[in-house]
């Protein structure tokens, strides 16, 4: 049976899987990301993760953190979460290590493609995919394919300005961006500023569900800010579906209720019924999407 490899490169872990042509995973592996040791060490770790799968494969698809230029196969830019990652010839270096054709893209685009292939967006052609976690990222699926833009930056919706973030710093160095108020670190920081003692966002979510008014208010305000952003994007791009993933999307009913209410308050009547739902593939989405890229390149 012919298979391909799907790889997801994140700041803390690298996941790999053997995937059939109909989207079934037949083997999985994962290794920690040597994020502080430079690009060569990360690429070697990818090769090691693929080697642990133990099977043969015809091609590989890779979703990676950073701004990935799919045409050139290079990392255009990246944050400090992967030291020395910017400028890496991701496609060429991995093709040399793996011995097969390699296709690369941003990890959020890969995540969206996975959901489009066998997940919650299966059968859709126009989807707004959003991941809310350490940052806020997105992928706009137009006619079944991710929109990359002229500089491979399309989808960085966390850096759109919103009123609730006015004056708040953003990890990109700017201020007033959605990521500065709606991301996981921003929500936790807000809770701590209000005197809370939680050490991680899941604790804040649990407190909110148990009736902690401060925790609930922090989650609701952050979700409302994100929802306002998504409502505006729905008006602008007219998707069939809004698909929300990322760690913050696991914060429970308080967060989801506020998010959906804020989207509903922003959208135009013609798009009022666009569903806002969570993904269906969990941590498998990005490796499946990366594998789908490989299958598409094979034809």
From TrEMBL:
It comes from the Bacteria. Keywords: Kinase, Transferase. Its EC number is 2.7.1.2. One of its GO terms (molecular function) is glucokinase activity. It is an enzyme of class 2 (transferase). InterPro entries: ATPase_NBD, ROK. Gene3D superfamilies: 3.30.420.40. Belongs to the ROK (NagC/XylR) family. This is Glucokinase. It comes from Saccharopolyspora gloriosae. The lineage of its organism: Bacteria, Bacillati, Actinomycetota, Actinomycetes, Pseudonocardiales.
